[in-house]
Specification:
It is a single chain. This protein is of the alpha/beta class. It has 3 domains: about 35 residues, no CATH class; about 110 residues, OB fold (Dihydrolipoamide Acetyltransferase, E2P), CATH 2.40.50.140; about 200 residues, Rossmann fold (3-Layer(aba) Sandwich), CATH 3.40.50. Strands 8, 9, 10, 11, 12, 13, 14 and 15 form an 8-stranded mixed β-sheet that branches.
């Protein structure tokens, strides 16, 4: 590494300093002020002095921080009764990270809307944001050369203060074990009783619900989502991908508000993106010790890679969190821990979904208290 001068570091953006600090393994660099960070990089004692900021527009564009106003502007604001030309508003929404590393806070994901707010790539790197994170923070209006309002700083991530969000272990490096804690599905419907008996589901299960047309897949998923919503300490997220408007109405009538809905006419790419966002948000929560259930209705119109990725995300972390994925599919995808196949003919006779006992099963069901 070349020798770094104080002058060069003082002229660097905060995101560049963060990159240097990460390479040097400096602890807690994200919470340091710029002067403190420069001192840590140079191995000097921090005196409390802060360098003069570089050109305000350049720094703000890169770091997302609000530029310092000039004295004359402050006086003008005072003469105008304290009003500021760039009065801050605030935004709360869902992050979508783009291929170039920057992103947007979407107010009505997955679709863009007029109120969406730009997030710089530097802020996304600094806060380690992923698609699906819910964030909030102050917003500034677009400047002359900008198209969108910009997020000034990230104040909360997934309803926690940004500076308190601890770095979690990368999801792929978390341990994995077969599910050992069964969900209590209750006895609200005959179909749930059949699932509990013939294909039990536990924390971290990887579940597909398949069957021919009119076999009751969506009906069973609604029953499962309603039952699991009552599980203590478990966050249930429902994603409708390629959904008919009548199906959305049925979910809402059951008292379940899906977190994301893509319409029947949506492209496979849009459906895949909606599922990917939900999976990333759930993975992030589990890496921090949470227990999540992701219900997807359905994976039929989702690209094959995204469908397998969604199912593969399910995991029971020993002494940690869990992600349970329950998805409707035309056919089992392979790799499930629980396969539920519905019998359309028997279901039509019974008036409710009926589990085909000969084709439905759970791996290591004895660990869940079955068999």
């Amino acid at each position: 590494m070349s020798v770094m001068s104080r002058e060069a570091l003082e002229g660097s953006t905060l995101s560049d300093l963060h990159s240097i600090a990460a390479e040097l393994d400096i602890d807690g660099y994200r919470r340091m002020r710029k002067g403190e960070l420069i001192a840590a990089i140079l191995g000097e004692e921090y005196t409390g002095e802060e360098p003069e900021p570089p050109a305000a527009d350049e720094e703000a564009q890169e770091s997302g921080e609000r530029p310092r106003r000039s004295r004359s502007r402050s006086r003008r604001s005072s003469r105008d009764g304290g009003r500021e030309e760039e009065a801050e508003s605030s935004v709360e929404g869902t992050v979508e990270v783009l291929d170039n590393g920057s992103g947007f806070v979407r107010l009505n994901p997955p679709d863009p809307s007029d109120g969406d707010v730009y997030i710089s790539a530097a802020q996304i790197r600094r806060c380690e944001l992923v698609s699906g994170d819910r964030v909030s923070g102050p917003v500034r209006s677009p400047r002359r050369s900008e198209r969108y309002p910009s997020l000034v700083r990230v104040e909360t991530i997934n309803d926690r203060p940004a500076d308190e969000v601890a770095d979690g272990t990368p999801y792929e490096k978390l341990g994995a074990a077969f599910p050992a804690v069964a969900f209590d599905l209750g006895s609200a419907s005959p179909a749930l009783a059949q699932v509990a008996e013939r294909a039990p589901i536990g924390r971290g299960s990887r579940v597909t619900v398949s069957g021919p047309f009119a076999s009751g897949r969506s009906s069973l998923l609604r029953d499962l989502a309603a039952a699991l919503a009552g599980a203590e300490g478990v966050e249930v997220t429902v994603v409708l991908a390629g959904s008919r408007p009548e199906e959305l109405a049925e979910w809402q009538a059951a008292g379940i508000e899906p977190a994301s809905v893509t319409a029947l006419g949506a492209s496979p790419e849009s459906q895949s993106q909606a599922v990917d966002r939900a999976v990333e948000a759930a993975r992030r929560a589990v890496s921090r010790g949470g227990h999540c259930v992701l219900v997807i209705d359905s994976l039929d119109g989702v690209g094959g890679a995204s469908a397998r990725r969604a199912l593969a995300a399910a995991r029971n972390v020993p002494d940690g969190g869990s992600l349970t994925v329950i998805a409707a599919t035309r056919e089992p995808l392979g790799g499930e821990t629980t396969v539920i196949v519905l019998d359309a003919e028997e279901g039509a006779k019974a008036g409710h979904p009926v589990v085909d006992a000969s084709r439905s099963a759970t791996l290591r069901a004895q660990a869940l208290g079955a068999g």
